[in-house]
Write a structure and sequence with these properties.
heterodimer, A: 331 residues, alpha/beta, 8-stranded mixed β-sheet, 23% strand, B: 323 residues, mainly alpha, MetI-like fold
Chain lengths: 331, 323
């Protein structure tokens, strides 16, 4: 696990509005090693999708922009690349799968066409070769009778099947990094587990790194090596899956874990919920962004934004509770 | 597919029948009649009545309809009251002339409007997009006959670049170059009207499609932006445009009465106007019939095209295909 596949340094990205720049991702720093799975967890609106779109440089098309920071993919800064250069990386070295598989596939092209296109663009295959390869890929992602499915249109397939097709497209060129943005959210629970298993086994086979974005702590616990918890555009806690689940330090992470049904709660007791809602961009509170919802908030939390503090080699958090213990040890 | 076509044909026959009933009734409800046109000084009332009986106009309307229908089923469109000319001889040449004009106008519209709309969808609120809005407002707002007369004044009367009216210069029938010169002004007038809608349709349709998840997937695959627009987006954006094309097809045959009149184009629209004035029932009925057939064929064509561009539409399957 020595090689860093992706290193994000101080990424700030967002949207221009009437009120000025809305920072959907504010000074984000992350690393992903080869073969590792990093889960970015957070509520809707926490900036996790913007971060993933920024890495793909697809944020430009969504009306957003990268304001500051570096995204180093195998040492090369992606933020300075042209869209044309990114076109050679996207789908080839970095691939992405999306939340709603039914709408992620083009309804007017066959499944085979959509897989073959990637191969024709990046691997220089002709149509015939690419279609043969598409059939192999479909079989690989667990679709029965791939030689029939390859000629079908997305509407003829179930949601789970479509997500397998999307995964086949993403894996066609054996990418170094796979970004999966809520890949199982739109699927039934049983299908969810199958897709996660598939991703895990493919990861072992191809040795790729996965950046998985989810709002579901349960999903994160199943597949993550490390977890980064995002809140209102910042990373509030980051650590190994054991750090986060066994020693959650940030009150937000603790709240997320307590809101999982059956997690350290007894049957019949009321499910814990974090009070309030995530603040809207442009209406961020002063000080710590979480303080209006935090049970431990102090005056200091209301006044000043906490920096990141290292709790161990693998575990860091952004909360005044720990900063006081450790003295002022900002990183 | 076969079953689908049979069902559509039966629907078409019923529709056509209803159309003839209603138009026949409407035409006969209108005041005046073909005999009034024939009244001249010195014609005695008796001779007038005899003439009426000869033409079958003394019968009640429903009997007249049945007689007309009876002849139609034998393939006879009837004759004109005035000169006893077969209706077909008058009608068919005008159908061809109208189609020449309208297909030219349609092609010009689509060739300009689709690429223009697509381009504008990639540069929203750019100069080209703003200009298209101005052209659209002009197209919607300007009365066709007025615009036609202005063009005639400038390009035919003042500059003498183009022929004032008609389809051919006398003695040059069949000369394609001559036809094209005659087409320029009426096609311009007609296209501007269509252009207004189609630039907007194609722009709106493209914008909607470009916002879809599968476009993001295509970009995430590393597909070049030009290919994203022209392959992934356009195929989907064409689906609603095909529907509108089918719905507009009736205008292709019937909607040019004013333009044809202004430019003295020997088409069906102009024929309808003059025959309506003369109360030539059988010609009017024939025109309505031909137009209705075109409407039905247009809708059928649109449905078939719809199934071609959108694999989710399956003709013949229950609930699919028809609107």
């Amino acid at each position: 696990m020595a090689e860093k596949v992706l290193e994000i340094r101080g990424l700030t990205a967002g949207f221009i509005s009437d009120k000025g720049l809305l920072k959907a991702a504010d000074n984000i720093s992350l690393e992903i090693m080869r073969g590792e799975t990093l889960c970015v967890v957070g509520e809707s609106g926490s900036g996790k999708s913007v971060t993933s779109l920024a890495i793909m440089r697809l944020l430009d098309y969504a009306g957003g922009l990268i304001v500051d920071g570096e995204i180093l993919f195998k040492g090369e800064d992606l933020t300075t690349k042209s869209q044309e250069e990114m076109g050679k990386i996207r789908g080839n070295k970095i691939a992405m799968i999306f939340q709603d598989p039914m709408s992620a596939l083009n309804p007017v092209f066959t499944v085979g066409d959509q897989i073959a296109e990637t191969l024709m663009i990046h691997q220089g295959m002709d149509r015939k070769q690419a279609m043969e390869e598409a059939i192999k890929l479909l079989g690989h992602v667990g679709i029965p009778a791939p030689e029939i499915r390859v000629k079908q249109y997305p509407h003829e397939l179930s949601g789970g099947m479509c997500q397998r097709v999307v995964i086949a497209i993403a894996l066609a060129c054996k990418p170094d990094l796979l970004i999966a943005d809520e890949p199982t959210t739109a699927l039934d629970v049983t299908v969810q587990a199958q897709i996660l298993d598939l991703l895990k086994s493919l990861q072992q086979e191809f040795g790729m790194s996965i950046l998985l974005i989810t709002h579901d702590m349960g999903v994160a616990s199943e597949v993550a090596d490390r977890i980064a918890v995002m809140y209102a555009g910042t990373i509030v806690e980051e650590g190994t899956v054991f750090d986060i689940f066994d020693h959650p330090s940030h009150p937000y992470t603790q709240g997320l874990l307590e809101s999982i049904p059956g997690y350290e709660t007894t049957r019949g007791s009321e499910l814990y919920t974090i009070k309030g809602t995530i603040p809207r961009l442009g209406e961020l509170p002063s000080g710590c962004r979480f303080h209006p919802r935090c049970p431990h908030a102090t005056d200091k939390c209301r006044a000043m934004e906490p920096g990141s503090i290292q709790l161990s080699d693998t575990h860091r958090t952004a909360c005044w509770l720990y900063q006081e213990e450790a003295g002022v040890k900002k990183s | 597919m076969g079953e689908y076509l049979i069902r559509r044909t039966i629907q078409a026959i019923v529709t056509l029948f209803l159309v003839t009933v209603f138009t026949f009734a409407l035409i006969h409800l209108a005041p005046g009649g073909p005999t009034q046109v024939m009244i001249a000084p010195g014609v005695s009332p008796e001779a007038f009545e005899v003439q009426k009986r000869n033409l079958g106009l003394d019968q009640p309307v429903h009997i007249q309809y049945l007689q007309w229908m009876g002849r139609l089923l034998q393939g006879d469109l009837g004759t004109t009251f005035k000169n006893n000319l077969p209706v077909g001889d008058i009608l068919w040449p005008t159908v061809g002339n109208t189609l020449v004009l309208m297909i030219a106008a349609w092609l010009v519209t689509l060739i300009i409007a689709l690429p223009w709309g697509i381009y504008n969808s990639t540069k929203v609120y750019g100069i080209s997009d703003q200009f298209a809005s101005i052209v659209s407002y002009l197209g919607f707002a300007m009365p066709t006959f007025w615009f036609g007369i202005i063009l005639q004044q400038i390009f035919a009367m003042n500059l003498k670049w183009l022929p004032l009216s008609d389809m051919w210069t006398y003695g040059k029938q069949g000369d394609i170059g001559d036809l094209v010169m005659h087409l320029i002004m009426p096609v311009t007038v007609l296209s501007l009207g269509f252009l207004a809608s189609y630039v907007k349709y194609s722009r709106a349709s493209m914008l909607e499609v470009l916002d879809q998840d599968y476009i993001r997937t295509a970009r995430a695959k590393g597909v070049k932006e030009s290919r994203v627009v022209f392959r992934h987006a356009l195929r989907n954006a064409l689906i609603p445009i095909v529907t509108i094309l089918g719905l507009d097809l009736p205008i292709l045959v019937s909607g040019a009465a004013l333009t044809e009149s202004v430019f003295n184009w020997p088409g069906m629209g102009r024929l309808f106007v003059s025959m309506a004035n003369a109360r030539e029932y059988s010609v009017l009925m024939a025109i309505v019939l031909v137009t209705s057939v075109f409407v039905i064929l247009g809708n059928l064509l649109a449905d078939i095209l719809y199934a071609v561009v959108d694999p989710r539409v399956q003709l013949g399957r229950k609930g699919g295909g028809s609107k």
